[in-house]
Amino acid sequence: MTLLLGGARSGKSAHAEQLATVFPAPWTYIATAQAYDDEMAERIALHRGRRVEGWETLDAPLDLAGAIESVPDGRPLLVDCLTLWLSNHLLAEHDVERESERLAQVLGKPRGPWFVVANEVGLGIVPDNALARRFRDAAGRLNQKIAARATHVLFMVAGLPMQVK
Amino acid sequence: MTLLLGGARSGKSAHAEQLATVFPAPWTYIATAQAYDDEMAERIALHRGRRVEGWETLDAPLDLAGAIESVPDGRPLLVDCLTLWLSNHLLAEHDVERESERLAQVLGKPRGPWFVVANEVGLGIVPDNALARRFRDAAGRLNQKIAARATHVLFMVAGLPMQVK
Amino acid sequence: MTLLLGGARSGKSAHAEQLATVFPAPWTYIATAQAYDDEMAERIALHRGRRVEGWETLDAPLDLAGAIESVPDGRPLLVDCLTLWLSNHLLAEHDVERESERLAQVLGKPRGPWFVVANEVGLGIVPDNALARRFRDAAGRLNQKIAARATHVLFMVAGLPMQVK
Predict the structure, then answer these.
(1) Which intervals of the chain form a coiled coil (chains A, B, C) (predicted)?
(2) Distance CA B86, CA B79 (A)
(3) What is the ipTM of this complex?
(4) Domains of chain A
(5) Which chains touch C (3 or more CB pairs under 8 A)?
(6) Chain C: residue nearest B161 by CA?
(7) A13 annotated as belonging to a binding site for a ligand
(8) CA of A144 to nearest chain C CA: how many angstroms apart?
(9) Which residues of B touch C140 (CB under 8 A)?
């Protein structure tokens, strides 16, 4: 399992797609984004448009562990992305620690070449509002949890990977 | 062409100056900053004050590609910085994709040792306002475009370079 | 002296504790946090709870240089963290350049295995308010100053160290 971390527009998704498609099709793409406004709908369409034939797309804004468990053994998998999934749970006021733990269990036992995208959001100024601080902390803890179980961790900078692990 | 990426006060400009002045003078410095307030005027003065004799300074808040084209063959060049230039175009409501593409064309054909500074701004929390999000996206895309054409990419951390490419 | 830089929840403190406790106890922990609200009190309690026996804790929200000078020769030391210390001085309207310079002098002459934690806060969007920008600039300058005197600099990503120096 490879974790791809990076900031906004750092080329995480495109690089993860390149890595996954080194393996033979079909590939599974699990999207966690919810199109709750036009801006987000546009971003989702952009990501979908870039993917070539051979991709099967599953939507899993909340039950990501379940979606991953449904993927056949040996199938190349791209999860995009953990941070939106976490944000969906936080907004729904779910127990994010329990959800993160369950997800880590599933991702920690990969059954094929799995590529997982997540955002690094903790390198700016401390946010003013308490919800943003809680989100930032939860995202950082989740990234640490998944990174500890990954065989490779990449930090993306301007479309280029730096190997962290 | 070397791209130096980093956060605020990460030592990008000072390191770029060190790299450029390894080559014999004269050196050309293209500044993209506009002194629209006192704080910015102070920063510009600070940067200018640090540069020793031997530097020729051009101001190019908008026509950066044109300024770069005017630089003689073989001349060491420092562009500081892409992110302010992008911000100037965004505020002027210009077509930043077209401008970025033109700039990438010019930077992709270096005619000497060229050093280009840009900010990484996508590693914090998603900004509240839509303009900041658009800026963040455009800056990330521009960094990717230039990084793809660079021979070397450095990520600056506390004044120290990490080699990305 | 080793400087550990990273974002929020990047695992800086935990990794620094691991590095310090490779050396024999007792270890000195200098905390710069002030529990001015419940959220901060909780974070401090969490950090204290993680540390095992063998740690002696000093509180130094302002006189960090003095606290470090009081540590016996050869004693493993963890300073956590520079960025909160800087923020305490900024809020108290002290001369942060002078304080930073004094601190750099003391940290530049380590008398044992010293580990220093600091936040990288400059990789997000430029903050709206002037105080946050001043803080961000001062934090970046301080990080550069200490990094220049460190023998090792680590950039923490999701709990994993990247060696910068």
Answers:
(1) none
(2) 13
(3) 0.91
(4) 2-22+31-124+149-163 (3.40.50.300)
(5) A, B
(6) C164
(7) yes
(8) 4
(9) 7-10, 158
